[in-house]
Amino acid sequence: MTRRFRSIPFSPAASGLRPIAGFLLSILALSLFPGPARAFTPPSPDMPESVYLFGRTIDLSQLKSPLEPGNKNQDIKEGGALYAKNCVFCHGDLLDGKGVFGKSYFPPPADLTHPKSLLSKPPAYAFWRIAKGGPGLPESFGPWNSAMPAWEGQLNEEEIWKVILFIRQAAADMNRVPGAQDAAATPSLDRGRAVYQEKCIHCHGETGKGDGPAAALTSPKPRNFIKGQYKIRSTPFGKIPTDDDLMAMLERNYPGTTMPSWAHLPKADRESLVLYLKSLSKKFQKFIDRKKEHKVIVAPEPPELSLEALAAGKSLFIQNCSGCHGVKGRSDGDSTKKVVDLASDAIWPRNLSEPWLFRRGDSLKDLYLTLRTGLSTTAMPRFSERTFKDEQIWALAHYVRTLALSEKPPLRKTLAVKKVDGTLPETPGDPRWEEADSYVFPLGGQLMAGDKSYHPTVRSITAKALHNGDEIALYLHWDDPRVDPILALSAEVHVSPPPPLPPHLRMALGENEEPETPPAPEAQEFPDAVAAQFPVAASGSGPLPYFLNGDNAHPVNLWRWSTHPMAAEEYNARGLTQWQKQPEESQSLSSRAAYGYGRYFLVMKRKLKTPNQDDAQFQEGAATPVAFNVWDGSVGEKEAVKAVSSWFEMRLE
């Protein structure tokens, strides 16, 4: 089956519509610098004249905001809180489309500060797009290959208008070019308070306790500034940071979190914020009153890498780090059973195979400072100078860097399925998989409908595929720090053991003693699972189904594997929760799985062609859309609570 992909970026030209430049420029001025609510909204060539919303037909050309001009400041504040709860994960705190899942969906979330964003169009356009989202929009105004959810059922009309008001005001502020008055401004506590109230309260709260309206949906939780404890510092564990540390905190990017870099703020605003943050904790004033001085830890120049250093680093890692980070560094250490408590935000240790997510950075000097200072408020300790010499710290840092690829894998949107002769590999460990290229696809939380997944454990999945003209084999692996115990009954499982005790603490078994027999493994409440998703052949070559498991008009075929039952099964879906397992006589998948040190490995295999019209059909030389779903059952992910990908494609040689 050959499927025609719709073009991904939206543009009026792509849909056969050419807006008038002068019209857009006039709208732009009103959008970025909003005035009082207008009596009506001029129609846009990019939207219909009317739309059915909130149980009635709305004339978009006559639509106006119901918000009262006199309540503008309060409405902006409430709109900011709504944005932080519902929009920040994709569009980001800076409205630039670089939220936590900003790189997980394609096309990427809109940069709402861009002159050609939805804010360059009439306010009614923004209302329509927010309410209706990406799926189910009129084809004549498409293409709509977007992850944007429909907020019609989750926000009321007034709330949507408040979000629009906040976005317009925040976008205008973001597009303001700092002038001479900013450069000449004097940092002050009052200025810092004002900047904090404008930029920080939605996460960190009015008083800095980390209890803003978005805090409940954030992980790691926003910093409680009252305690004066900061993870990333140049000072010893538990000590307050220097002013330079606080400035670096504001300017640093924090991948995997909702905390953006504030380096774009005028210098006086950043310096004022530092003053204000210090005022929130008594520790800083006590430090001054007691005339103390900071002990700053500086990373020296690292030594050259050597085989001896790597061997020493590995030994140090197994003894001191594998208990939390695991043997391969994938967060699956034995100690995580005690230190990880998602309810209290005691989150997983860092997955060391993904250094691009390190908060401080992944250079040798960054690793040195993390090891020497530790991470206050976490289970990550400091490696004291009294116990560990510098040469040991450098050996450990060098070894940690071997646990990951030298650079982040590039995103490639087409998975090439190589054609080979003979039978296809059936197990993940088959050396023939080395003939196939690996493709890494990003995953984001399912935030669009029903029970949402704000912080999925699994953030990417790696895929390979081979075919022989008759069958296709799909290889997948993904990191999950906790294996479903029941898998050990039917597949090869290797888990990170407790780190070895120092020799002086070890006790040899007596002559009559026998090691304890571990209990028989039992399945966790919800299985770990993965699904590869394809459009069904019967849907033809029309629009792609919505990536969240299709809809009534555009169904999808899913190859779903789970740890219990330990099998790959075929389903058809017409929506996020409208799944139906195919009858037994239509099941044609075979599968083999394994688990090793924080990572699942899986191979699923099937004929290229089947007689079932509800199946995906594969054709040599053609592209087939593919998307992925992953569930981590150990943290309660099930049904709609899962990690998801956008559509990509598989192309068979």
Task: Supply Rg.
Answer: 27 Å
The major beta sheet can be summarized as:
15 strands, mixed
Could you report the average pLDDT, rounded to the nearest whole number? Answer: 87
User: Which quaternary structure do these chains form?
Assistant: single chain
Total domain count: 4
**E-strand count:** 17
Q: What's the CATH topology label of the largest domain?
A: Immunoglobulin-like
| Total count of helical runs of at least 4 residues | 16
Estimated share of beta-strand residues:
15-25%
- Overall structural class, as computed from helix and strand content, comes to alpha+beta
CATH-level-2 architecture of the largest domain: Sandwich
CATH class identity of the largest domain: Mainly Beta
Shape from CA axes?
flat
Determine the fraction of residues in helical runs and give it as a percent range. 10-25%
Q: Residue ranges: pLDDT <50 for 5 or more in a row?
A: 1-42
Alpha-carbon distance between the two ends = 14 Å
Structural notes for this entry:
With about 650 residues, the protein is α+β, with helices and mostly antiparallel strands. It folds into 4 domains: about 20-175, no CATH class; about 200-290, no CATH class; about 305-400, Orthogonal Bundle (Cytochrome Bc1 Complex, Chain D, domain 2), CATH 1.10.760; about 415-500 and about 520-650, Immunoglobulin-like (Sandwich). The chain is about 25% helix and about 15% strand. It has helices at about 20-30, 70-85, 90, 125-130, 155-175, 180-185, 190-200, 200-205, 245-250, 265-280, 280-290, 305-320, 320-325, 335-340, 365-375, 390-400, and strands at about 50-55, 55-60, 415-420, 440, 445, 460-465, 470-480, 490-495, 530-535, 555-565, 565-575, 580, 590-595, 600-605, 625-630, 645, 650. It has a 15-stranded mixed beta sheet that branches. Strands 1-2 form a two-stranded antiparallel ribbon. A hairpin with a 2-residue loop joins strand 10 (about 555-565) and strand 11 (about 565-575). Helix 2 packs across helix 5 (about 155-175) and helix 4 (about 125-130) crosses helix 5 (about 155-175). The protein is flat and about 80 Å long. About 40% of the residues are buried.
